[in-house]
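Limitations
The structure tokens in this dataset are predictions for the assembled complex, not deposited experimental models. Users should treat interface geometry with appropriate caution, especially where small molecules or nucleic acid strands are included. An illustrative entry is reproduced here so readers can see what is and is not provided.
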Amino acid sequence: MCLRDWRFVVCLFLTFIAVGCKGKPVPPEVHEAELQEQALWRAGAALYTPEEYDQYSKSLRAAKDQLIKEKAKFPLLQNYQEAQMAFQALLKTGEDVQEKVEDHKLRRSEAISSQIASFTKRIDNVKKLSRMISEGRFARSLLIRTELKMRESDLLYRRGDFIEAEKKLKEAISYLQDVEDVVFSVLGRYRDESLLKKWETWIGETILESKQNGAFAITVTKIDRKLAAYKGGRLFITFKVGLGPNSLADKLHAGDNATPEGKYRIVKKIPLSQYYKALLLNYPNEEDQKRFVRGRAENIIPPGVGIGGLIEIHGGGMDSITNGCISLENEDLDKFYDLIDVGTTVTIVGSTRRQNDLFFGQNR
Amino acid sequence: MIRLSVMGILVVFLLASCSKPQQALDEAKAAVEAAKTEGADIYSAEELKALNDSLTAAMDEVETQSKKFFKSYGGSKGMLAKVKAEADALKASIPERKEKAKNEALAMMEETKAAVEEAKTYLENAPRGKGTKADIDAFTADLKGLEDSLTSVQESIDAEEYFGALDSAKTIKEKAISISDQIKQAIEKVKK
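Predicted assembly:
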């Protein structure tokens, strides 16, 4: 073998190595696609638009495989045109995915925001109502948990973590529904059309009676916590009143803390009462006694419990929580106490109108 | 004979770096997976993502070289070694991050317990009477709800869900402080 042969072989080898090592530069779209993929990941594309992101990832893989195929060729034979086109198409797809992600997040954000606002109203509403019922304590405990979950949801929402925010919102809604079940089981009767009709009739009859005999008559609307005094059928004065912890229920027996519903009369005026002054009502009336007997027969009244009594309109302040009575501020009571005679009609009703969605929550 | 020997040496030289760095590849993959298992997806998601991207790039480089006639795995070996080293470092850093998150959650839990206790003390000292019974009942129920929720926070800590526990504890603390303020206001109202 001569020297020339050696040189030829070595040159050929070095040329091969040099050509084999130095490839053509890859298209700039490759780096752009890498950055785009990272941006999509950060934006949460996998979470918010999983199908689109999955499709994008597959396209990215396919484009990369195309690139690998070309990179593996001898530099002289490398042609990145096809791979470049694949990456260009991928970048376009990526832009669409990015747009969808942003759109999806915006819609989700708006939905969560609106739900938080709506549920906050429901919570406030049910919180007020929970104080009117005997199960208030249980409801409040659940309500606090609802509020906590709502707050956590709100925090996550503000952080832009809409998926976790939605999870917390669902937990909050679940608690809220439990609370509403408790509260509305007591308050459901305020949507009972026949009962509302009966209450309206009682109020109408009471005002008519006042008109006919020119005397005073008193109506109490429990849901509004309002006492109205009529004289000669005309509204004389109204006051806000305080009621007991289970005031919205109809009184059935002693100790239920409910305020009775019905048409009563003042049977005694008590000028020196434990609660300033008081007007004693004839609870239980005939209707109350019948209901009590029925309740006994149906075993809805605990054994050994009486029907109760001593239901009064008294002073002591609106905040003086009663156990079925109707309490007023002393100065309010003074404004009509002396004008009221024994025998005056006092009609107590739950409500005079159907409670609307604001009361019961729009989704109930 | 000499020509054949030279050609043989050249072939051996060319094929010397032809073997796929399978071991380095497996080690890098295992290291990334180990970092994830340690909790990198929770405590260092960005770094884990970068690591996964580097691993994919290294695997692509291996794939590129495997398709070449003249294979050179030197670059990909370097890439894989870097991935492994970074994954090991990430994995090693997780316990410290986890501990930090745990301590933050525990500290917040203690602050929250103290806030609930403070609210309970205010409530115990609130004047009891006919006028305050409903408020006291309501606040008592509220605090019961907070105490029940604290149990859930402890459960989250036990389950090593420290970020969630921290958020929940913070929220309970805020509520407890708000209840304390309401009780104080109610007491002031009664005093007047």
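Some entries come with short summary sentences. For this one: The beta strands of chain A are 216-221, 226-231, 234-240, 262-273, 276-281, 312-314, 326-327, 345-349.
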